[in-house]
Write a structure and sequence with these properties.
The protein is mainly α. 72% of the residues lie in helices and 5% in strands. Strands 2-1-3 form a three-stranded antiparallel β-sheet. It is a multi-pass membrane protein.
Length: 350
């Protein structure tokens, strides 16, 4: 279902509805005829903006404001255009009785939606605050991974830029002799800069973890188990937490494993029988076996998440070593190319 921008009595409202016709009928039933309704495409929350939103809301709740007051205050005081308009949309939908976590999920991209679903909107104020803190912890961890990787590639990227700039300037001064070199070096500089900009922007927004999830099972399982553990902390039953998890992952095998686990638990099978063995390595496998006896699945989930996180840290460690080295190797190629193009006339004279 899409979002709509509704102008009524000089005020703009943002509403979520099945169709424009249904929304118009709703306002007509309220006796409102002079309205202007248009499709609206919001700028969805990513990891970074969602963390900023949760941090601001958590701070306002700590200062004694109610949730709707905190969101309304943020919509008026924030200079961030994404926060400003999205907070207005949340306020307008809250007035219609929609659940906070449902509204937030509609304003977040697919990767961020599970962290929105962690929010407890139908419990006590303390439950809501605790669930927001849990989401903040999860998002902070994801952004920390990306920041760590970004730090490792910054210097090699800078060296590549310097080498390409030198090569480009030399081609510019020598363009009368070899105009084709100027075109080639300009194209190379623009393409390399464009690729680097995309990588840096994605890393700043915390999307590095998405790339790792595509290729590495430990990253997928770390996210899954951390979300399950966080859902349990917010009071959700395990089966309810598992039910919506396939929507938040694109990996086909992991989706099948989640669905198998869910339906196996629904049939009354034990934890050890239902969960895939690859989810619970080393010590966590013993905790899972014990959970089949005493029902303490939270300890098994925590240990499994910690073990997979250690494996992720090892991947990141080697990535920090290998990727900068590869970038420096590529940068060295650009530097050698630049130096050869500069000194080639001198070598030819000698």
């Amino acid at each position: 279902m899409p979002w709509f921008s509704v102008k009524l009595d000089g005020t703009t409202y943002y509403r979520y509805a099945a169709s424009e016709r249904r929304l118009l009928l709703h306002y007509v039933s309220l006796g409102q005829w002079n309205i202007d309704c248009r499709r609206y495409t919001p700028r969805l929350f990513n990891y970074k903006t969602l963390l900023l939103f949760f941090t601001e809301i958590n701070s306002a709740l700590q200062n004694g404001l109610q949730l709707n007051e905190a969101i309304h205050s943020l919509s008026e005081s924030s200079s961030n255009p994404i926060l400003n308009k999205n907070c207005l949309a949340i306020c307008h939908e809250l007035h219609t009785g929609e659940a906070f976590n449902t509204i937030l999920s509609r304003l977040a991209n697919q990767r961020c939606q599970p962290y929105c679903q962690l929010i407890v909107s139908d419990g006590s104020r303390e439950d809501c605050e605790q669930s927001i803190k849990t989401s903040i912890e999860q998002l902070t961890s994801l952004l920390a991974w990306s920041a760590k990787l970004l730090k490792g590639i910054t210097y090699p990227f800078f060296i590549m830029q310097v080498a390409l700039a030198i090569n480009l300037l030399h081609s510019l001064f020598a363009s009368t002799e070899a105009p084709s070199n100027l075109l080639l070096n300009t194209s190379m500089y623009l393409i390399t800069s464009f690729v680097q900009a995309i990588i840096v922007i994605n890393f700043i927004n915390g999307n590095a973890s998405n790339w790792f999830e595509t290729f590495n099972a430990s990253f997928r399982l770390t996210k899954l188990l951390a979300l399950l553990n966080a859902s349990r902390k917010t009071g959700k039953p395990l089966q309810q937490a598992l039910y919506k998890m396939p929507l938040h992952f694109n990996h086909a095998t992991l989706k099948e494993e989640i669905l198998f686990t869910y339906y196996s638990l629904q049939l009354g099978n034990s934890y050890q029988t239902s969960f895939p063995t690859s989810w619970f390595p080393k010590e966590s496998a013993l905790a899972l076996d014990a959970a089949s006896q005493n029902g303490d699945i939270d300890r098994a989930l925590t240990l499994a998440a910690q073990e997979h996180e250690r494996q992720c840290q090892q991947v990141i460690y080697w990535f920090e070593k290998i990727i900068p080295a590869c970038c420096l190797f590529i940068a060295a190629g650009f530097v050698v190319s630049a130096l050869l193009s500069i000194y080639q006339p001198l070598l030819a004279l000698s």
